[in-house]
Amino acid sequence: MHSFIDKYSDLDSLIHRLDPRTKFIASLAFIISVVLTPTSNWHAFALHLCLMTSLLIIAKLPPFYVLKRSLVIFPFVLLIAVFIPFLKPGEVAGSYNIWLWQVSVTYAGLLILANVAVKAWLCIFSLILLTATTRFVDLLKGLKQLGTPKVIILILSFMYRYIFVLVDEAMRMRQARDSRSFGGGRLRQLKTLGNMIGTLFIRSYERGESIYAAMLCRGFGDEIRSLRQLGFKRIDASFGVAFSLVIISSAIIFW
Amino acid sequence: MDKIVDIENLSFFYPDGHQGLKDINLVVYSAENLAVIGPNGAGKSTLLLHLNGILRSNNTIKVFGLPVEEKNLKETRRKVGLVFQDPEDQLFSPTVFDDVAFGPINMGYSELQVKQRVAQALKWVGMDGYEQRSPHHLSVGEKKRIAIATVLSLNPELLVLDEPSSNLDPRSKWSLIEVIKQLPMTKIIAAHDLELIGALCQRTIILDGGIIVADGSTTNILNDVALLRAHGLAPEEKLRQASS
Questions:
Q1: CA-based, 20 to 30 A from B53: which of A40, A99, A254, B180?
Q2: Is the ipTM of this complex over 0.90?
Q3: Binning pLDDT at 50, 70 and 90, where does residue B120 land?
Q4: What is the pTM of this model?
Q5: How is chain A split among helix, strand and coil, in percent rounded to 5?
Q6: Which residue among B78, B92, B95 places its CB closest to the CB of A214?
Q7: Computed from CA positions of residues B83, B87, B92, B96, in that sequence, does the dihedral angle turn out positive or negative?
Q8: CATH architecture of B3-243
Q9: Alpha-carbon distance A4 to B54, whole Å?
């Protein structure tokens, strides 16, 4: 079985019942406000964290799951920001000799690294909250009504539909390879892997053609039509107001 | 009787120059259930894809009296419901509802009509209550039924099925046969599952190498073991003896 990105979207809570657009805009606003918060403003970050934690509790998401999911951001953050402490000029916190080089770490640099990590973590929190409490289909619908081009929506919905099919196909290919492979050098294995990726690509391409044919069979034309519209409810208005109040006040109080 | 499908001298070449169909002449009448059988690569799917204009060669096909050409495509595709062999190709939406509703929405029906048609189509295949499920997480048998529902929601007058029983276990196969049997429209079914066509079709054609090599009642054709054997549809004599 696969792990869904919207695994807990079938639970029921105040957050789950909000309109996807409310949640999407709120997440976006939250991310912007986190990103714009000045570096040394730890009180504001604490408030942001409190806000996210309480929303996660209201949404009844399992804390361990959220924590585990949120960790995926760190490799990316580290990859991008790990050199900042070494490059930023300022008061030196420590100096090391590594082989031929002398490198020094500055306080200002460390502060920025910590800052980037915290900001990224808070942002991923809000995205987990968004995707885990909204069914992917509804999120797409919300994005569409917010004016996202239909082609993008269609691409995302195909991605969500076929990612599992591709994962299964890759898994079957791996099993077939493993049941026929008896060691062999690293180079040979890499070559096999290349062939598998190529095959997967061609299969996906051909599947794309059959899917298009299947769409044509059911009257698909130049235009992408759709049905239901979402509706804002009173709960969306109150959530929106409360949420923006917290964000704005955090910006004002701790600036 | 009304001619539903009227094909005269249809030939088709694949882009690589290989000939897929040679001089096909075929008339299908209203309320007939026609089986198209033949070995792998005989051109069954190619023939089916001509019926609603996905593949087009020369303008020699008439479906419901209309020539299958650009200006009639929408009408033809509403009347001819084609179900692909692999339900993964047929079911491309995030939910079952979206998939079954795809055709009616493209035809521009109102929201109420779309919902009614989806409900009716799912009921026909015994899958009501599956609207919000994700197609990927259904069993093959369920996927096949939903795939049929995706064209039933257009109320087709001709239902075209490509290998409906492939990958199904016997129980799923027989329950699918029951589902197909109760559908009232004219059907064309491509298969090499002789049990399936024996249960569903009165008339059978054998396609081999892109040519129609036999056309007759299903009972006659299924009993003609020599004919079936000649076209790879029945085991060779020595294999038959070995298995009995």
A1: B180
A2: no
A3: very high
A4: 0.75
A5: 70, 5, 25
A6: B92
A7: positive
A8: 3-Layer(aba) Sandwich (3.40)
A9: 35
